[in-house]
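Data follows
____________
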Amino acid sequence: MLSYLINDIGEMFLYLPYLGIAALGMLLITLAGNIGRKTTGKMPRPVIATTLFRTYIVAIIIITFLSRESGSRLGFDLEIGSTWGINSRNKALVVENVILFVPFGLLAAWSIPAMRNIFTSLVWGLLFSWGIECMQLITQRGYFQIDDIITNALGTVIGLIIYTIVHLIVKKRD
């Protein structure tokens, strides 16, 4: 299982140049948005956190759609837990789905104060994951699996917990 995890995560490094370009674009969008927010009297968004969160969303789109050929996967699996017990490859995919959404919970909480609530974060993690699964089913770039939605939501909550712990440590040091 570990070799699958290392190999799959290693393959994601091929997309770093695209993410660098995306990060620059997201930085410019965030800065422009903050100018607009200031003119309307709204508080600007935190530049680094917002840029990273937006870049992460681009990364998710690349990983879940653009790295796969259209029509390469067809079907759905609504049985909870069915993915885990098949083989080492599928166990690695389950772990990867959790890891994939840890940044969602962490970066969302860092950039959007409302996402620091566990219920709000969980709901948005579920909705975002469900949206990905629906789009994968429609485009046939991935199987719609209920396990993916559950593991992505778990990753979101873990990310929020990490954010909360780090935030408390930093706050305590001040």
Summary: DSSP finds six helices and two strands in the chain.
